[in-house]
Amino acid sequence: MGSSEQGEHAIHTMFLEERRYPPSPEFAAQANVKADVYERDFEEFWETEGRERISWFQPFDKLYEWELPYAKWYLNGKLNVCYNCVDRHVESGAGDKVAFYWEGELADTRRTITYSDLQSDVVRFANVLKSIGVKKGTHVAIYLGMIPELPVAMLACARLGAPHCVIFGGFSAESLADRANDFEAEIMITQDEGYRRGKPLGLKKIADEAVLNTPSVKKMLVVAHSGGDVAWTEGRDIRYDDLGKDASSDPADCPCEPMDSEDLLFLMYTSGTTAKPKGIIHTTAGYLTGVATTHNYIFDLKPETDVYFCTADIGWITGHSYIVYGPLANQATSVIFEGTPDFPDKDRWWDICERYGVTILYTAPTAIRSHMKWGPEYAQKHDLSKIRLLGTVGEPINPEAWIWYREHIGGDKAPVVDTWWQTETGMILITPLPGITTLKPGSASRPFPGVDAAVYDESSNEIGPGGGGYLVLRKPWPAMLRGIYNDPDRFLSNYWSLFPGNYAAGDGARIDEDGDFWLMGRVDDVMNVSGHRLSTIEIESALVAHPLVAEAAVCGRADPVTGQAIVAFVTLKGGKEGSDEIVKELRMHVGKKIGPIARPSSVVITAELPKTRSGKIMRRLLRDVAENRELGDTTTLADPSVLAKIQQQAQAKP
Ligand code: WTA
What we know:
The protein is an alpha/beta fold and 654 residues long. Helices cover 32% and strands 23% of the residues. The chain is globular and about 75 Å long. Bound molecules: 5'-O-[(S)-ethoxy(hydroxy)phosphoryl]adenosine. 5'-O-[(S)-ethoxy(hydroxy)phosphoryl]adenosine is lined by residues 270, 316-318, 393-396, 418-423, 444, 505-507, 519, 521-522, 528, 533.
């Protein structure tokens, strides 16, 4: 249980956390969720949500089927996700309602997009895709930044029944190519350039480099955003504007394809415990029902009056489920922000919240900790009085950050929902319900209605109140992954073999006397850096691919802002000694191979790595070194003196 050692430390302080925040009577009186929700029957709950929340072309005839570990939901239903997210709202007369306020990174680049606008944009985009050969079943890779065309492209794919795979705009050419290859993408959608802190960022350039190694990609559709010059490959590259200007935006010219409940909607790649990322499969009806239902109850969404702002990138699962599909299915008005929280200044988010009248904010603990570090004065410059609900996701939140968030952003009254879930779960699974739950800072509270979560020990015994162990899920839920693309064996071994018959989340958790869950972080070789999931082995492979490197071991070190920071221990070929240049070069190399988010914060170059007599690297001890802790048991080391040397070297580093 690697990082659970850290979790162990964190949890002691959390269990001393005794502050309680019961719901206010005013909030409770208007809450979407009713007090008896936890008593509802699991099947009745999802049956009702499926029937009432979703518009079906043909109703489902069976709620679910579970041939362990494969679940199917809403069997034999026919529906279209784009129809549910866009067309039905226009048809019901809500066309003038705002779907998205888009706020660009550069000053004064803004767009207000109503549901009618969104429909026209999506239909036009879908017609362009059709004209370049996309049809039901065509695999479309999307490499776009946070521009309006990103949700539009996703919805256009959903409209046509073409599965999409969005690859986060911060990934390198190599990471992009790996994912597009595994997905067998036929079309790549990208943009000329994005912006990062006001400077152009060449997305097409990266896509060009990636596509050299993705033989399945035949066409590249390029959206103009910055208007900057980009290299052009005749015959392969297509300007969206060239085709878009003549394409019809009339929905009658591009009907929504009826899809089966279990048709593939998208893949989302995530890091696991090996070097190869996993293509997580999400299908149509269960996913949509799951994200729409949770979004409605957990964020207490009032579509008529709320303005909802989720700060995640759409290139990750949080953006898919809680910027695009859940909110749109619920006819929400949302903010999409292209930029970073501190450009041009550290009050950018608060300026956005004030200007659009944001009422619900959903962000990550790492962002909250950055704002804490910058100080509350940036928020105090703005009127945030409309904010009535706050959410967090991505990693355990420390009680101090939770309280700061509620106090300084939530006016000392907004409930904070700490939501636990994963790329694989598709939807939030453990969370408070605002209006019902008495909140405890640092606890994600209880499983969502209909979700059966528990904590097990290594031998699959359930752990009772007060104890800690592995988080498992014992019953299927609608938005659950349907597998790993092209890798059924890994699906079984990764999630279903540790606690047979149960889904192993890879997280440690504790349950307190009230039955509330306290998440303790990953128990495997996955790190969580600023809410990004990264595999230690993926980074080790990138390091070992450098010509100077003989061996590498990577681990996470607790960091006050980013949650974890990446520490790499490296030995060089031929016993070469390290230097500042080599350290810099290796950091850049990892950034180039995987993406800047994967760059180690420190690289310790050492003559040897601590190994057992059978030659296994002892990562546990490296973690102790990285965290400056007293060393654990070293008796199995082949040469205990190695560790003393590494400790010296690590301490010599900043
Ligand atoms: C962690 C993000 C504690 C956890 C939606 C999980 C959390 C991983 C929380 C999934 C939370 C997410 N409290 N830990 N509220 N939310 N995590 O796939 O370790 O990017 O396994 O999905 O983030 O990360 P992923």
